[in-house]
Write a structure and sequence with these properties.
- The protein is an alpha+beta fold.
- It has a single domain, classed as endopeptidase fold (from Nostoc punctiforme), CATH 3.90.1720.
- The chain is 27% helix and 26% strand.
- The chain contains five helices and ten strands, in the order βαββαααβββββαββ.
- The strands form three sheets. Strands 4-9-5-6-7-8 form a six-stranded antiparallel β-sheet. A two-stranded parallel sheet has the order 1-10.
- Helix 1 (16-24) packs across helix 2 (44-56).
- The longest helix has 13 residues, at 44-56.
- It is globular, with a radius of gyration of 14 Å.
- The two termini are 18 Å apart.
Length: 156
């Protein structure tokens, strides 16, 4: 299925199944910090960027270089703020397949991990030292999920 690029996609344009298929197509892509090339290398942000590019035909925004400790160094919710600019924030308990989840590794730290729900109980994500994979949304993951976002133009 081909999705037409649009700077402001209209509602009911993109089926959730298409977003999930896009995310799953990255499974097996090796982890590589700052990368976003399917089958070559990606980090968690690169995975979401790659899915966004597939859906809309453009990069949401230029991404400056970042170190692996960028969140600790800045103390700002950079990833959360960027998601709010390009996606629609929803209640984390209302996430559906095709929605992006944002995680904090520890309480009182900056949220710095993202993934895409593939089913109500599974997440596709990229994590350091392992290829992109689909994991069970165990209680541990739900405790660390702090925000959820919907891609523009998703058919509900």
């Amino acid at each position: 299925m081909t999705v037409t690029a649009s700077p402001t996609p209209s509602r009911h344009e993109i089926p959730r199944s298409h977003i999930v298929a896009c995310a799953r197509s990255w499974i097996g892509t090796p982890y590589h910090h700052q990368a976003s090339i399917r089958d070559v290398g990606t980090d968690c942000l690169g995975l979401v960027r790659g899915v966004y590019r597939t859906l809309y035909g453009v990069e949401a925004a230029p991404v400056p270089g970042y170190s692996s400790d960028w969140a600790e160094a800045s103390g700002r919710e950079t990833m959360w703020d960027a998601a709010r600019m390009h996606l629609s924030e929803i209640d984390v308990r209302c996430g559906l397949p095709g929605d992006m989840l944002l995680f904090r590794w520890r309480a009182r730290t900056v949220a710095k991990h993202v993934g895409i729900l593939s089913t109500p109980q599974h997440l596709v994500h990229a994590c350091e030292a392992v290829p992109v994979c689909e994991v069970s949304m165990t209680p541990w993951w739900w405790r660390h999920a702090v925000a959820a976002f919907r891609f523009p133009g998703v058919a509900d």
